[in-house]
From TrEMBL:
<dbReference type="InterPro" id="IPR036116">
    <property type="entry name" value="FN3_sf"/>
</dbReference>
<dbReference type="InterPro" id="IPR003961">
    <property type="entry name" value="FN3_dom"/>
</dbReference>
<dbReference type="InterPro" id="IPR013783">
    <property type="entry name" value="Ig-like_fold"/>
</dbReference>
<protein>
    <recommendedName>
        <fullName>Fibronectin type-III domain-containing protein</fullName>
    </recommendedName>
</protein>
<feature type="domain" description="Fibronectin type-III">
    <location>
        <begin position="1"/>
        <end position="91"/>
    </location>
</feature>
Length: 126
């Protein structure tokens, strides 16, 4: 099974699509059930979809965040295929907000990460 593809993403949703697995000589294709899981906030795998479709929209997600997923053919107890997808950044000021928060907390490692990932313009107040 190939890793799924992210067809569309926005602030709170990710649409995921995967290829249907066809097995030659098998009449059980119509009974194939896919199981999609997300790694939640407490690092536990939670089933978010179980069905025959090869497209699923994951909603109610936080913006500007990467998520870990895994998928398998549940009806055949196949191996898991792991992949990642992310929601989009809500705008150009998100990095500035995160940078301000990191500076206030004195978190130099986060300041470095934000500066490397995003184009942040620091303005000198006079």
């Amino acid at each position: 099974m190939q890793p799924p593809k992210c067809l569309h993403r926005n602030l709170h949703d990710i649409s995921i699509s995967w290829e249907e697995i066809k097995e030659f000589g098998s009449y059980e294709d119509s009974s194939k059930v896919y199981q999609l899981q997300i790694n939640n906030e407490v690092k536990q795998w939670t089933t978010i979809y179980c069905g025959k479709n090869t497209l699923f929209k994951v909603d109610s997600l936080a913006p500007c965040r990467s998520y870990s997923f895994r998928i398998r053919i549940k009806s055949q107890e196949s191996d898991w295929v792991y992949f990642k997808a992310a929601t989009v950044d809500p705008g150009p000021y998100t990095s500035v907000i995160h940078m301000t928060r990191a500076i206030k907390l004195g978190n130099t490692s986060n300041i470095r990460k934000i500066a490397q990932i995003s184009s942040v313009f620091l303005l000198k107040c006079s």
